[in-house]
Amino acid sequence: MMNIIFLILAHWLIVLTLAPLFVGVITKVKAFFAGKKGPSVFQPFFDLQRLFQKNSVYSRTTTWVFRGAPIVNLAAVLLLSLMIPLGPFKAPLQFSGDILLAVYILSLARFFMIIAALDTGSSFEGMGASREAFFSCLCELALFMNFITLSLVSHSISLSTMIGADTSLSWNLIGPALLLVAGSFFLVILAENNRIPIDDPDTHLELTMIHEVMILDHSGVDLGFMLYAAAIKLFIFAGILVPIILSIHAGNPIVDMLIFLGGMLGASMAVGIVESTMARLKLNRVKNLLLIAVAVAFFGFVVKMWKG
Amino acid sequence: MTSWVDVICIIVVFLSLVILSNSRVTAMIRVFALQSFVLGLLPFFLHISGMSGRVVMISLVTIILKAGLVPYILFWAIRHVSMRTEIKPILGFGTSIILGAIVIAGAFWVSLSLKLPGKPVSDLILPCSLSTVLLGFMIMVTRTRAVTQVLGYLILENGIFLFAISLFDEMPALIEMGVLLDIFVAVFIMAIVVNHINEEFEKNTVSVGRSKMGETF
Amino acid sequence: MERFFQLPWQVPFGEFSLKIDSLSLMFLMAIFILVFCAGVYAVGYMREYQGRRPMGLHIFFYILFSLALVFVVLANNVILFLGAWEMMSISSYFLIVFHDEKPSVRRAGFLFLVASHCGTFLLFLMFFLMAHNGGSMNFDVISHSGFSAILAGVIFLLAIIGFGVKAGFIPVHIWLPHAHPAAPSHISAVLSGVMIKMGIYGICRVLWILGVLPDWCGYVLLMIGVVSGVMGVLYALGQHELKKLLAYHSIENIGIIALGLGLGLLGESHHMPYLTVLGFGGALLHVLNHSIFKGLLFLGAGAVIQKTHTGEIDQMGGLAKRMPVISILFLIGAVSICGLPLFNGFISEFIIYFGLFKGLASLPLLGAFGCGLGIIALGLMGSLALACFAKVYGTVFLGQPRSPSAVEPWGKTSSWMIVPMLVLGALCLWIGLFPRKMASLAFLGGGYLSHTDLSSLNMGIIFIPLSFIISALILFIALMVGLFGMRRIFLKGLIPSVRETWGCGFSQSSARIQYTSSSFARLIVELVKSVLLFKREGGEVRDLFPAKIKLTSSIQDASEKFFFRPLFDRLTSLSKKLDIHSIRYTQMYLMYIFLYLIFLLVWKMK
C-alpha cells in the first residue's frame, strides 16, 4: 500500500516538474533553428506562475462547464500519468485493459474541452471545437490500430506491458512492425498535442488554430490548468513512445532513469526539429496525413500478422 | 542483420503510400528519388557477406540512374508547367489512402499462397514487392496528369526491381544494365511527349473552379 | 436460474406458460425501470393536453403496451409470444400517433405498422420451422431438440431479419427515424429504450433455443454490428432535429449490442467460454445501460421541446441557464452514451472491448481479423458519438440563444418530469461507479444464453480490471475535488470580472455567427459524403457586395432512398394494377376460397 502511494507521488512529482521543461526544450530547439537565443528552458514555469497569480475574466455567456473543463482536463492527464512507467518507476495503476481507460479518460477530457469551447458562443471556439472533434476521430482510429498491433506483439492489453516496461520488446524479431507502429505513433503524438504540421502552438490567428482557439477565452487559473494539462499530455505521449524505441533495460535504477531522461530529451528535440523544418499543413491535407498514419498502423498490423 | 532488408522493404512500401497520397508533383518526384535511393542500397545489404565489385557497381548505377537522372529528366519535363499541383484524382486522396492500405493487405494475403523456390533472404520481400507493384498500378490508374502516370509506372518498375534483385543472385550484369537502359529510354521518351503535350495544352488552359463559399477552412 | 408458471388456456396449440430466467431478467429490469419512469414523466408532460385529447385512451394503450412487453419477455410458448408481440406492435402504434392531426405523424405511424408486420411475417415463418422441428410449441421442448446446420442457419437468418426490423439493424431500420420524432417524448423513450430491445431479446431467445450454430453466424452478427453502429452514428451526425438524432444513436447502440452478441457466437463456435460470456454479458449489460441513458436523453429532449415548441436544435441555445437541472441531467445522459468513464456506458463497452481483445489474441486468422475490425469500429463509433453529442449539447444548451423560441419566457418544468430523470441519472452514475452487481447479473444472463456453466470459469479476469477501474475513477473524482479546491485558493480575494466573449475586435457579433449543428458536423459529414448522400445547394458567392444567400445541406438515408422507397412504389403500382380487377368482389373471394381448398387437398394428399 505504501509502495503504491510512494509510486503515485513519485510519478506526479516527475510529471509536474518535467513536463513544462519538455515544452521549454522544444522552444529552445526551435529558437536554435531560427538563429535566436530563445527564452530559457524554465520559461513555461514562469508563465504558469504568472497565470496562477492573475485574476480571471469570464464571458457572460459561459456556464459552469467553462469553469469546470480545465479541472477535468488536468485531473484526467494526472490520472493518465499514473498508467505509464517513468524510467525505473513502474506504473502504479496497471491492469489488463488499462489502455481502454487511458483512451477514454482522454476522450472525457476532450469532450469537456469541446463543450467548454462551444460554451462561449463564439464562432472562433466553435471552429476549433469542430476541427478537434474531427481530427480526434482519425487519431483514435490510428491509436486503436497501433494498440491492436502492440497487443499482438506483447500478448497483453496492459499499457505498461505493451510498451515493454518489464521486458524488452523484441526489435530483432518484429522490427519492421514496431518501426511502423513507432512512425504512426509519432504522427499521432503530433496530432493529439497540436504540434506542427497539424496545428501551430504559437500562432494566434484564430482561423488557423485548433487547440489554441479552443482555449482562447480561458484566463488566469483556468488557462494555467489548460496549459499545464497540455504539457503533461505531450510528456505522457512521448513517455509512451520512448520505451517502445529505446527498449533497453539495465538493472540499475539510476541507469534506467538516465536512459529514460535521455530518451525524453531526444524526443523533445525530435519534436522541435520537426516543428522547425516543416510548415503547418493546409487543413484538408491534415486529414490526409492522419489517414496516412492510420494506413501505416494498418500496414504494421499486416506485417505483424505476416510474421506470425 | 537480416532485418535491414526488412526495413528497406517496409520503407519502399511506405514511400509508395506517401506518393499515393500526395498532390504536389515536385514532392512526388522527390519522394520517388528517395525511394530509388533506398532501393539502390538494397544489393549492398543483401550481399553484405559476399561483397563483390559487381554488387557495388549495380548499386551505384541504380542510384545514379533511378535516383539522379530520371528525376532530373522529370523535373525538366515539367519545367514549363505553371500549375504544379494535381487536380483531384479520380478517387479522391482520402479514399486512395484507405484503398492503398487495403491493397497492401490484399497483396500480403495473396503472398500467403505464393510459394517460391529456394529460400529468400527475407520473407518480407515478396509481399512488399507485390504491394509496390499494385500501388504503382493504382497510381497509374487513378491519376489524371501524364507526369504522375509516368511516376506510377516507375514505381511499378521499382517493385519489380525489388523482387528481381533479391531473388536472382546469379543475374548477369548485362541483363541488369539492359533493364536499366530500357527504363531510362522509356522515361526520356515520355518526358519529350509530356513536354509537347504540356506545351500544346498551355494554350487553352481551363481555370480551376472558383472556390465555393467557405470551401477553404 | 429459472422459474415457471403455467395456466390453462383454450387457444389451440397455445398454452399460458411463462418462464423467468437469467436472460429475461436483464430485459425485465430495463422494462420496469423505464416504463415506470416514463409513466411518471408523462403525468407532467401530458398535462397541457388534458381536456383537449383523449387521455384515457392513451393511458389504456400505455398499460396494454407495458403488459405486452412483460409477456413478450416471459412467454414460453410460440402462440403466447406471437400474441404478445402483436399486442405490443399495435398498442405502440396507437401510442405513437397521439398527435394524429399532423400528417407526418400519421405517415410515420403507418410506416411503423407496415415495417412491424413485415418483420412479424418472417417471425411466423421462423417459428413455424422451429415448432415443426421440435414437435411442440413450448420453447423449452423445442430447445431440447437438435437442429441440423442448414435449418439452424435458415432460422438464424429469418430471426436476424424478422427481429432486426424491430431492433433497428441497418438496412431494415427505416421506420425508426420517422417514428421516434413523431411520438410524444415519453413514448419515444420507451420505444427506444425498451421496444427495440425486444428485437434483441427475440434474437437472444432464438440463439438460446438453437444452441449450437454454424461458424458463419457469428461473423454475420459481427458485420451487422459494425455496419449498424458506424452508419448509425454517421447518420446521426448529419441530423439537426433532436429526436431524429437520438433515434439514429439508438441504431448505433443496437450495433454495439449486435457486436457483443456476434463476439459471443464466435466464442461459442470456437469453444472459448470466456469470449462467449464476455460477449453475451457485455451485450446484455449494454441493453440495460442503453435503456437507462437513452430514456434519460429522450425525457430530457421532451422537456426541452415542450418549452421551446420546436425540435430543431439550431433554434435553441443557451438553455443551460434557463433549465439548469435538466441541462445537467442531459449532460449525464450524453456522457454515458459516448461511453466515457464515470458512467455506465463505459462499463459495458469495456467488457465488449475486453472480449474483442481476447478474441484478437486467441482466435484463428479470420476470427482475429473480425475482432480487430470490431475494435476499430467500436473506437470509431466512440469518437464519432463524442463529436455528435458535443454538437448536440453545445448547440442546445450552451452558447447564446439562436432564435426567439429559445428566449421567450416559460414556466418551471414540472417536478413530475424532473424526478424520473433524476432517478435515471442516478442509476447511470451508480452502475458507472459500482458496476459489480449489474455486471454479475449480465454475466449470469450471458452464461444462461450460451448454456455455459459459470462456476467453471474464473470471472476474476474481468472483475479485477473492473475493480481497478473503480479505484482509478474514485482517485479521479478526488483529483477533481482537489483541483477545484486549488482553484478556489488561487482565486481567493480576487473577484473575476465578467465581460462579453472575446470576438477578436468584432463589435457587432450576433448569436447567428455561432456554429450551428451542421457547421460543426460538416467536416466529418463531408469526409464521407458519398456514403451519406450529402447534398449541398446554394451558398455560392456571386456578386461583389454582400447579399442574401441561401444554403441548404441535407443527408439522406441510403436504404430508404435506394431500396425501400422504390420497393414500396413498385408494390403500390402492382397492387393498383390488381385493383382494377377487384370490381367483382364476390368472384374474387370465391376464387380465394377455391385456391385454398385446392391447397388443402394437395397438402393432405401426401
| CA-based shape of chain B | globular
Q: Going across the major beta sheet of chain C, what is the strand order?
A: 1-2
Question: Per the principal axes of the C-alpha atoms, what is the gross shape of chain C?
Answer: globular
Quaternary status: heterotrimer
Mean pLDDT of chain C: 89
Distance between the termini of chain B: 48 Å
Stretches of chain B where pLDDT is under 50 for at least 5 consecutive residues are 203-217
Beta-strand percentage range of chain B: under 5%
Order of helices and strands of chain C: EEHHHHHHHHHHHHHHHHHHEHHEEHH
Q: By helix and strand content of chain B, what is the structural category?
A: mainly alpha
The string of secondary-structure elements of chain B, in order, is HHHHHHHH
Structurally, the number of domains of chain B stands at: 1
Commentary on this structure:
By secondary structure, chain A is mainly alpha-helical. Chain A has eleven helices and one strand; from the N terminus they run ααβααααααααα. Chain A has one domain (2-307). Chain A has helices spanning 2-33, 43-53, 64-81, 98-119, 123-154, 159-162, 171-192, 211-214, 220-245, 253-277, 283-307, and one strand at 57-59. In chain A, α1 crosses α9 (220-245), α7 (171-192) runs antiparallel to α11 and α9 crosses α10 (253-277). Chain B has one domain (4-113, 120-216). Chain B has 217 residues and is mainly α. The radius of gyration of chain B is 19 Å and the shape is globular. The relative contact order of chain B is 0.15. Chain B has helices at 2-21, 25-40, 42-46, 53-77, 93-113, 125-142, 146-167, 173-202. Chain C is mainly alpha-helical and 606 residues long. Chain C has two domains: 2-404 and 413-475, no CATH class; 558-605, no CATH class. Chain C contains 22 helices and five strands. Chain C has a two-stranded antiparallel sheet. In chain C, strands 4-5 form a two-stranded antiparallel ribbon. In chain C, a hairpin with an 8-residue loop joins β1 (2-7) and β2 (16-21). The two termini of chain C are 44 Å apart. The mean pLDDT of chain C is 89. Classes of the chains: A mainly alpha (308), B mainly alpha (217), C mainly alpha (606). Chains A and C meet through β1, α3, α4, α5 and α9 of A and α13, α14, α15, α18 and β3 of C. β1 of chain A pairs parallel with β3 (497-499) of chain C.
